[in-house]
Amino acid sequence: MFERVIGQAKAKRILSRAIKKGCLSHAYLFQGLTGVGKTTMAKELAMVLNCISKTGCGECNNCYRIKQGLYPDVLLLKPEGPSIKIDEIRALTNFMGKSSYEGSVKVGIVCKAEKMRDEAANCLLKTLEEPPDNSLLILTTENQYSVLPTIRSRTQRVDFQRLSTEEITGFLNNKGVDPKESLKLAEYSGGSLGKALSLQNSPAMQELFQKANQVLEELTRLKPPEVIALSSDLGKDRMQTLHFLELLGDALKARGIKQDFSMVFGKQYSITQIAAILNSLEELKLYIEGYGNAQLALEGLFIRICRLSEV
Ligand SMILES: [Zn+2]
């Protein structure tokens, strides 16, 4: 069961035990970083419950249709914009309230549940309070506290972990990615397979990934004009700057797990210095989120990092 979900042994154990004992909750809140398998797990769970052989085989007519988003008793709500609209939640609660087309378990999945404003969340509350028979609601979120307490208290939480480097590289290697590239992607993904895949697949992210890699590998070897050019390039777009800082932070933390700071930014740094840099990255993110000047802030950061290595 759940073989197609990478890692997440604990979540798999909790859910497969509940299925075997016949005591699945009527509503779950899957919590964990974006890209670690929450939605995949929700779809896999829908497959197990509706599979012709009750295994979630992935191949029978029902599993196939669930995978393709064509099964009439499974509804997946994935917000595109900044919020989940009340009409979307109304459609979901209507869907949940009707008896199933195929005499199976109705499954409603709401991704990024924190995007429900109060009105939408309150609309969903009725379904949570009086769950229809043979129905299952799965909400996913990065942070349970960003979901209303009334929703939280009516769902059972299942935590999803960051994936290990081995889990991510294993997956990428199987896809035919060069092992060296896999290792780098895993390092910069911060344990999110989704992020590793978007770094690999999207040209814009790939470019950012190359720049983060350039900074991490050789910042102190760059000449001042090159540092300024890099800062102005990376600082042009606020979202891009934030992504860059996150990538750099994740890559540094990954080195921390391996206790390998022998060659970051092109020099040798101590753990204390790296901790100070990580702090600066976090401060800078807040500053830029608060509409500070990204280009100047990045320049300042790069200069501070270079000076640290001279101490
Ligand atoms: Zn099946």
Question: Could you name the key traits of this structure?
Answer:
single chain; binds zinc ion; 5-stranded parallel sheet; alpha/beta; 8% strand
Q: Could you characterize what this model shows?
A:
- This protein has 311 residues and is an alpha/beta fold.
- The chain contains 14 helices and 5 strands.
- The chain has helices spanning 9-21, 38-50, 61-68, 86-97, 118-129, 149-152, 165-174, 179-189, 193-201, 203-218, 224-234, 238-258, 271-289, 294-308, and strands at residues 27-31, 74-77, 106-110, 135-141, 156-159.
- A 5-stranded parallel sheet has the order 2-3-4-1-5, sandwiched between helices.
- Strand 3, helix 5 and strand 4 form a beta-alpha-beta unit.
- The N and C termini lie far apart (54 Å).
- The site of zinc ion has 8 residues, from helix 3.
- Principal-axes geometry comes out as elongated
Mean model confidence by pLDDT: 91
Major sheet: arrangement of strands: 2-3-4-1-5
Protein structure class: alpha/beta
Please indicate the percent range of residues in DSSP E strands (runs of 2 or more): 5-15%
CA radius of gyration: 22 Å
The major beta sheet can be summarized as: 5 strands, parallel
How many distinct beta strands? 5
Bound molecules: zinc ion
What are the segments in which pLDDT stays under 50 over at least 5 consecutive residues? none
Terminus-to-terminus distance: 54 Å
User: Which range best describes the helical content: under 10%, 10-25%, 25-40%, 40-55%, 55-70% or over 70%?
Assistant: 55-70%
How many DSSP helices?
14
- Helix-strand pattern: HEHHEHEHEHEHHHHHHHH
